[in-house]
Design goal:
About 35% of the residues lie in helices and about 25% in strands. It is of the alpha/beta class and about 300 residues long. Helix 6 runs antiparallel to helix 8. It is elongated and about 65 Å long. The C terminus is likely disordered. It binds guanosine-5'-diphosphate, magnesium ion and potassium ion (K). Magnesium ion (MG) binds next to helix 1.
Length: about 300
């Protein structure tokens, strides 16, 4: 891995229906991604998949509601979606090469104009068109928005998908590995466990550690021999001073966080838990992630 800092980030894929968003995600999954369980439903953002490499982690999130609002709730959804687009590290704006520019795109473009987040124009279904048409398309969209990259792909056939993944990776900021590399579908409880721990830290530190923490679950494993689950988690803070606060005098605060968390986790999992907590400093990770890592278990 060398000394290069680990990168991670959140990516929204938006585009009209049927442009191939799911097909793209599934193709990435086929390579390395682990799709999240549908269980941790959220009112805001749902993690659709996490793609982990030795050097980076790319978290694809669902951004519902990018369409013209028809009612009040739609309006609310729309606002949420727009906020999400501001908070992610990258937006993939996917279009269908076959269809070209349409009314649905206009609305999305309007939304994208208001954000600073880098945008990739992903032109999907290039297997369906003549290469000449590609340039025409690019020219059309370029008039409306500034794109960090323009990437033609075929999600169905897989052409150029590796390259797109590479370009996404390049775009990711320094950040922690939010999910273990082996994240699989059958561990939706990881999210809840991390929220339980985070809640204890915030509660016990009061205003001193203002939400600038993330809790990463490194391991949840059942022991073969007895009714015991090992949980290893890392509390990620932004500054050394916060690390000191979270650990507390003589480790007292961290110990209390552990005690209370273990109690809740045991209730959740229905078995005895051996909990190991670590605290790590990772500077400035939260600018982008603070709202996104809220998976709807709180409030
Ligand atoms: P979504 O609504 O944006 O999630 O779109 P889907 O992923 O469900 O895809 C809609 C349709 O387009 C499906 O029938 C896909 O098989 C098809 N599709 C997706 N990607 C491609 C592609 O690269 N080439 C072709 N020819 N068809 C594609
Ligand atoms: Mg879909
Ligand atoms: K949420």
């Amino acid at each position: 891995m060398g000394n290069t800092a680990y990168k991670s980030g959140f990516i929204s894929i938006i585009g009209r229906p049927n442009v191939g968003k799911s097909t793209f995600l599934n193709r990435v999954i086929g390579q390395k991604i682990a799709i999240m369980s549908d269980k941790p439903q959220t009112t805001r953002n749902k993690v659709q998949g996490v793609y982990t490499t030795d050097t980076s982690q790319m978290i694809f999130i669902d951004t519902p509601g990018i369409h013209k609002p028809k009612h009040k709730l739609g309006d609310f959804m729309m606002k949420t979606a727009t906020n999400t687009l501001k908070e992610v590290d990258l937006v993939l704006f996917m279009i269908n090469a076959e269809e070209g520019f349409g009314r649905g795109d206009e609305f999305i473009i309007e939304k994208l104009k208001g954000i600073q987040t880098p945008i990739f124009l992903v032109i999907n279904k290039i297997d369906c068109i003549h290469p000449d048409k590609l340039m025409e398309l690019i020219d059309q969209y370029k008039d409306f928005l500034e794109f960090a990259e323009i990437v033609p792909i075929s999600a169905l056939e897989g052409s150029n998908v590796d390259r797109l993944i590479h370009q996404i990776e390049e775009q990711m900021p320094e950040g922690p590995q939010y999910y273990p590399a082996d994240q699989v579908t059958d561990h939706p409880e990881r999210f809840i466990v991390s929220e339980l721990i985070r809640e204890k830290v915030l509660h016990l530190t009061r205003e001193e550690v203002p939400h600038s923490i993330a809790v990463v679950i490194d391991k949840i494993a059942k022991r073969d021999d007895k009714e015991m689950v090992d949980v290893m988690a890392t509390i990620v803070v932004e500054r050394d001073s916060q690390k000191g606060i979270v650990i507390g005098r003589g480790g007292a605060l961290l110990k209390e966080v552990g005690k209370r968390s273990r109690h809740d986790i045991e209730n959740l999992l229905g078995s005895k838990v051996f909990l190991e907590l670590w605290v790590k400093v990772q500077k400035d990770w939260r600018n982008k992630a603070s709202n996104l890592r809220d998976f709807g278990f709180k409030e």
